[in-house]
Predict the structure of Thiamine diphosphokinase.
Amino acid sequence: MFDKIIICAGAPHPALNYLDLPSDRICLIGVDGGAWQLVEAGYRLNFAVGDFDSVNQDQLAQIESASQEVLKYPAAKDDTDMEIGLELALSQDERCPIEVYGAIGHGVGRLDHLIGNLWLVYQERFRSLIPRLIFIEFDQMIRFFIPGNHSLENINDCHYLSIISMTPTKSLRIAGAKYNLEPTDFTLPRALVSNEFMDHHPISLSFREGLIMVIWEKGK
Amino acid sequence: MFDKIIICAGAPHPALNYLDLPSDRICLIGVDGGAWQLVEAGYRLNFAVGDFDSVNQDQLAQIESASQEVLKYPAAKDDTDMEIGLELALSQDERCPIEVYGAIGHGVGRLDHLIGNLWLVYQERFRSLIPRLIFIEFDQMIRFFIPGNHSLENINDCHYLSIISMTPTKSLRIAGAKYNLEPTDFTLPRALVSNEFMDHHPISLSFREGLIMVIWEKGK
């Protein structure tokens, strides 16, 4: 039984200072270079997974000695390291949140990796993870929402909130924000960016059909 | 008659050294902070557009004196500055390429702006621009493809090539790459990342239905 699953992927400078203190009820998964980031920061891992082509032999040896289990895959494989990490999260068969660090790049990782990681939520096999998944970086946080009514809090003093549909959407409504939206249908994906919180009150988001990505952003 | 339309948006550090030398057959559009980047680099603009909330009064005066036409919009408006820039490109009624700098952030801009700019290709009004649109940064280049047969050259010594569908896709085929794909249908958007050029030969991409984004990436 875990309270939380934490995955750290290999993008540079993961926001590890946002990590809660480790406890035996947290499942810590290091994905490829992310495993090394965690080990270097002094954490012991439940799992290290990946092809480890981004770490050297000495780093791999340290990862192996700091991990309960190491799953090593060939570099040329169908799944990305991150997909293997999420499969592992799925296999834990928990309902707890899944926090992912170092996956959307904090602005300095590879753009194709960023897009590839966002696109994971389109995959049928990961559907059950969508409401539990949180991407966390220093300046941004991303969550995904399925149809219903949702309350979006201001977190980490993020100034901006962008509501971005990944699919066609029905009756998308935004209330309590700087820019509100009466229930509107969109037949194609639509990015409604740079909305703002009002006096730190939560923003209401509701829709009847579709898949929404929400980006909290500190602004630069 | 223009040979090329160049748009510079406001993300930090646009790859201006990739810009061809100015000529009277290039239409140069500066979008908000991007107008200042161009003026500061010594260019004269055909158009400067935006709410200019990211530049100060002195910078705005310099933009005004270096631009043939300045279109100033209120900060709270329905269209983003970039959408206004693309509308302007559309109104030129040309068939030439549209190069966009400073729109996908070179890794240091806002993530929601990056996503918002990629999502522009979903908008019906910009459909005719899709095959002409090129996003250029120091480490990346992005183009969009409609159904047909396409040859993807290695440009700027980019090591990686990622083929990412923005919609469901029919008969997607990749040939001449490190990782090839026999014609495959995808019922949901799919990111095929980290493919590689072989000996600098072009990669063949073909598909029957859908919208594909291709990212050329130097790798980090």
Notes: Helices of chain B lie at 33-40, 57-66, 81-91, 111-118. The longest strand of chain B covers residues 169-175. Chain B has two domains: 4-138, 144-217. The radius of gyration of chain B is 18 Å.
